Amino acid sequence: xxxxxxxxxxxxxxEILEPLDPTTINIYTxxxxxxxxxxxxxxxxxxxxxxxxxxxxYAGYKVHWAxxxxxxxxxxxxxxxxxxxNPSKVARIYTYSFYEDMIRLxxxxxxxxxxxxxxxxxxxxxxxxxxxxxxxxxxxxxVYFSVSSFKEYGKLKGQNIQELEKGFxxxxxxxxxxxxLDFALWKGVKSNNExxxxxxxxxxxxxxxxxxxxxxxxxxxxxxDIHGGGDDLIFxxxxxxxAQSESLTGRPFAKYWLHNGMILVNEEKMAKSLxxxxxxxxxxxxxxxxALRFFVLNTHYRxxxxxxxxxxxxxxxxxxxxxxxLSDLSDNNLPESSTGNFAKEFTDAMCNDFNTxxxxxxxxxxxxxxxxxxxxxxKKAYQKELLNLSQTLGLNLINTQAEYATLKDKSFSSIIExxxxxxxxxxxxxxxxxxxxxxxxxxxxxxxxxxxTDNKYKWQFKA
RNA sequence: GGCGGCUUAGCCAAGUGGUAAGGCAGAGGUCUGCAAAACCUCUAUGCGGCGGUUCAAAUCCGCCAGCCGCCUCCA
Length: 463
Hints:
The protein folds into three domains: 5-264, 3-Layer(aba) Sandwich (Rossmann fold), CATH 3.40.50.620; 286-405, Anticodon-binding domain of a subclass of class I aminoacyl-tRNA synthetases (Four Helix Bundle (Hemerythrin (Met), subunit A)), CATH 1.20.120; 408-461, no CATH class. It has 16 helices and 16 strands. It has helices spanning 40-58, 74-83, 87-104, 120-132, 161-166, 208-220, 234-249, 280-283, 289-297, 309-325, 343-351, 356-372, 376-392, 401-405, 408-428, 432-444; strands spanning 5-8, 13-16, 24-29, 62-67, 136-139, 142-145, 183-188, 197-199, 202-206, 224-230, 254-260, 263-265, 268-269, 305-307, 447-451, 457-461. The structure holds one RNA strand of 75 nucleotides.
């Protein structure tokens, strides 16, 4: 297998991927905060790491992938007040919603899905060690990390502490902090009614950055191979993770830092805070998981990706062409052997910092071969190759009927609307015989049409 | 203000020194009862602009313009 090259954000250059253990890769990627339905930005992130871990396994590595769930956080508390339910229940509701989305998108289950609230004792000892080492200090019932205690602070962002301080004008000063760049490891409650956990520093909740450091340390020890996440997390989240973890262990936290680009809507970042997000559930009403995956993989993972409905249509049509080339195959009817003619090109592309757009273009090159190959045996071999490589990207090109079922509601409604409109046309032409026939047909399908004035109508299911 | 990134055909998007992948859309044709699918042909002398380095630049350097991200929670 060829060497895999990755763009390491810590060094800002492409490097050959050399895990600590040559046979195994430990990878941790930042997952969602579960306070609402996930949007397609989360889908992009999940798809990116799904494909990267799939390829690492394809390349022969043993992969241990962890993706956290942030299940305690200010936004969750806010939501719990809005909904009038316990914060842990809010977290569970949206964790399950996230899982539902991940299943529909065909994301492989990570090997670990640590949740913040399951690691509180480990967090306490993490904080205690930092206090003992003078990297953290307590103020009232809060604990803060002291940025000035970590000389390399800013190395991921590429700025030193002085430079970072200069650009700090936008942040409201917190009087409790010794340095304005310091961040909370533990946030004490303001009043006893507030939700929280009992800790050595009183009732409160963990700071966001702490969970990733703690869970990484618990799962993988001082140093892991790859740490991933969205590029909006580089600063301060990942910077702070580095500061905490390296202050604790004195060892490098992660060898390689990989970040996926954002999804944009109208050239603007899609984010919950901007309110311009499209949920995964919403988008899957009008497109298939395959098409969404194609849409995402057609752009290199580090580039921004502009969301448009046109692009999703293009993706769906592209997927259709690939599926068409395998339309005579099914699970009971798979060719035995692959040509292997394209596997090298495919691997080369993926080894070059996971160049999925090139990898996809190779799938189309194989499709050309399938569609023009006269020799049936050879054609089968090309089909097998297309199937193998598409599966490495997590695409599902055969047995696709189940996928279309997710679109059923939309198609179903539009067919009914169409029939009703046809019926109105018949009525307007005084062709009542045809109009009645259409109404009878709908009626047999348990759809009752009710005429209103001015060609208006409504329809409903009847038992 | 500080730091980082982007600008390639109608649209999406690869390509980081050797003469522009791939997809979508579009045009013409073959096939077809008609479609669909498939196949064949065509669709950027040019990669934001201006300079420079080089035998050779979309690719390297400089300047300019436009756009975006992070610095507050964010995948």
